[in-house]
Amino acid sequence: MQGGRGTAIRREISKVTIKTVLRASAALSALVLTTGIAQAQDTTRACLITKTDINPFFVKMKEGATAKANELGIELMTFAGRVDGDHETQQQAVESCIAAGVSGILITASDTKAIVDPLSQARDAGILVIALDTPLDPIDAADATFATDNREAGRLIGAWAAGKMGDAAADARIALLNLSASAPSVDVLRNQGFLEGFGIDVGNPDVMGDETDPRIVGGDVTSGNEEGGRQAMESLLQRDPGINLVYTINEPAAAGAYEALRSFGREGDVTIVSVDGGCPGVQNVAEGVIGATSQQYPLLMASMGIEAIAAFAADGTLPETSEGLEFTNTGVNLVTGDAVDGVESISVEEGLERCWG
Amino acid sequence: MSDTPDPVVERNPAETVAQFDRHHRSALDRVQHFLHQYPTMVPVIVLVLSLIAFGLISPNFFSAFNLSLILQQVAVVGTLAAAQSLVILTAGIDLSVGAVMVLISVVMGQLAVNMGVPVPIAILLGLACGAATGALNGFLVTRLKLPPFITTLGTWNIFLALNYYLSGRETIRSQTLDAEAPLLKFFGTRFEIGGAVLTYGVVLMLVVFAVLYYALYYTAWGRRVYAVGDDPESAALAGIQTKRVLLSVYLVAGVICGLAAWSSIGRVGSISPTSFFEANLESITAVVIGGISLFGGRGSIIGPLIGALIVGVFNSGLRLAGVDVLWQLFATGWLIIFAVAIDQWIRKVSS
After folding, report:
1. In this structure, what CATH number is given to the domain that contains residue B184?
2. What confidence tens digit (pLDDT) does each residue in B110-163 have?
3. Is residue B46 part of a domain?
4. Where is the Periplasmic binding protein domain (chain A) (predicted)?
């Protein structure tokens, strides 16, 4: 009995082993074949890693990168975190990209400090790393950064608001609707830029909330969506019903703030300014919900990134930064139907042509 | 239900023993006993105390308008908390309520605005969709016997994905809704009583709680829900069809999520697939602070309403005082811990 069972088991094992070996060798030969084909084609590969797959801004970025990659014959792999702040998924994506032997990685980092280590491994492996939209910390952890100048985006809407209000700017009552309690760099840059543009002494330009100007009623956070914008606006109006100028981090927050103003019957005498240039937002500018918005160009960021990778793969060329900046400025335009002297802007029609999402 | 032993009669001997050494009891013991008898009093007392405290700290806090504004601000999460409490009463938890709500608001919007379905029918289909999501959760929990936490963790992801798919990740703007489907914004309609400005969304929340109160305390279904939550095995032995009760709970919760979705459109104005990302946790927060035990079968349905109001009062009060938002998170965290600690403490009376 004992010996019989042993033999049966042994026979079973040998069957399993043979099967496994057969399967493994099949898989191996498939792998060798594909690698052979890949080498034969000698295509340049690139990676795009975004914060999420659900925000229209990143959806557009992916579109831009895909279109440009198809045009240049680059094989593009795309990855995204599950939510904004999902660092682990991004780190895994970087590792996959290194394993895949890409020439370049385009990344909008969820955690600008933590991603530096995995990216330095990529750079050690000879991969070009370009930060899109969000600069890394430190900024030189990437070979290049293609981004909107967020301080300039803020400065434009601030200057426009000052021009629009004229003499009344001296008695403005300002509400600041920011993104989140963690005060990410985009919050600081746009907020401080707005205040500088409006002509307010910002104290330390890298710190939000240290301003002493009595025209500032206060700030609150919105999570960058409509519900948050509404809630924040309601609270600030409770603090001071006389608010007549509202800065918002993005256009969904602006739409929410408008709903709150409407419920207070104040929508007619408050000016809202914002940043982003998404299609619903520019439509809101056309309808007077938002006075002016600073438009950014995610599609351009991504297509420039792919071009840079193509150039790098061809002869090792590194991208150059814009003059006077630590990054490559992908441009920002003020969109308004109510142009103000001394502040350059584009029309709503042009904004709609170039909008995203 | 008449042959079920009356719990009061059962408890009588224990109370007699307690009375025996009444003169030894401290004031704290008496408070503990009082709270054990009236568990809803804990959140009520916290609410009253926080109202008084913020009235003293924050200027403008104590106006009829501001107090009614807090009601407006908690209306959506409060309605969602009603759905959540039903599930938690059965010792379950529904992590998908927020995703269901956003999904249904998108369904209603897409049907009415982009597919030309008459608005009332779009709303009915949305509510039916809520029932379907509830039925799916209920089916997985009762038939496949999966733990509610896991089930709804899974469906949360599924519903979010469907939400992004159906919405095309695009927002339907407030102005579009005004022009094409104003009925979707019905619950945002305001009316005034004295200086207080309320919305139909607030009324909806109160009506949902009132109906649930009636259903849980005055119908056989309500007693079965409590019985299943307290001890499913004895409930089954007592002849209750526990699976059917559980399924009905998830179904009702799904429909309430649908109502919350309709209400949220009125509140937010537009229909955005990225709104209310934390609504799941906010609804659980309201339920826990409202004194419903996460172990099921204990707590009053009115508690979560008060729990939601407490969070609203803290947020409003701290914001009005100009306190940095991080302290709102901080305060909410301590409120949750305080609520659970109190729950544990008053449970000791029975042990």
Report:
1. 1.10.3470
2. 999 999 999 999 999 999 999 999 999 999 999 999 999 999 999 999 999 999
3. no
4. 48-313
Question: What is the reported pLDDT for B101?
Answer: 97
User: How many domains does the structure of chain B reveal?
Assistant: 1
- Say whether pLDDT at B22 is over 70: no
The per-residue pLDDT for range A159-181, each reduced to its tens digit, is 999 999 999 999 999 999 999 88
On whether residue B29 sits in a domain, the answer given is no
Residue B296 confidence (pLDDT):
83
Q: Are B316 and B55 in contact (CB under 8 A)?
A: no
CA–CA separation, B267 vs A227, rounded Å?
Answer: 8
Beta pairing, strands B190-193 & B196-199 = antiparallel
| Range in A126-135, A165-174, B36-45, B236-245 with the lowest mean pLDDT | B36-45
| Alpha carbon separation from A343 to A147, A153, A182, A337 (Å, rounded) | 21, 12, 31, 13
Q: What is the C-alpha separation between B346 and B351, in angstroms, rounded? A: 10
Residue B226 confidence (pLDDT) above 70: yes
How far is Cα A303 from Cα A308, in angstroms, rounded to an integer? Answer: 9
Contact at CB, B169 and A263, closer than 8 angstroms:
no
Which whole number is the average pLDDT over B309-322?
89
Does residue B13 lie in a domain region? Answer: no
pLDDT higher than 80, residue B9: no
* Positions of CATH 3.40.50.2300 in chain A: 42-147+299-319, 150-295+332-354
In the prediction, which pLDDT does A50 show? Answer: 94
Distance from CA of B169 to the nearest CA of A (A): 6
Chain centroid offset of residue B114 CA: 31
Predicted TM-score of the model (pTM):
0.82
Q: In angstroms, rounded to a whole number, what is the distance separating the alpha carbons of residues A255 and A234?
A: 13
Top residue of A51, A61, A216, A227 to mutate, by most chain B CBs within 10 Å, is A227
| Alpha carbon distance B41, B49 (integer Å) | 12
In one-letter notation, the amino acid at residue B324 is D
Mean per-residue pLDDT of chain B: 89
- Mean pLDDT, residues A100-114 taken together: 93
The verdict on residue B47 lying in a domain is no
Looking at beta carbons, which residues of chain A come within 8 Å of B169?
A: 54-56, 59, 357
The whole-angstrom distance between A43's CA and the closest CA on chain B is 32
Does the domain spanning A150-295+332-354 belong to CATH 3.90.180.10? no
Q: In A81-171, where do the E strands start and end?
A: 104-107, 128-132, 144-147
- Contact call for B322 and A218, based on CB within 8 A: yes
Q: Which domain holds residue B89?
A: 63-349
Among positive and negative, which fits the CA dihedral A213, A217, A218, A222? Answer: negative
Instruction: Say whether B297 sits in a helix, a strand or coil.
Output: coil
Residue B13 has pLDDT above 60, yes or no: no
CATH 3.40.50.2300 fits A42-147+299-319, yes or no: yes
Report, as an integer, the average pLDDT of B70-86. 96
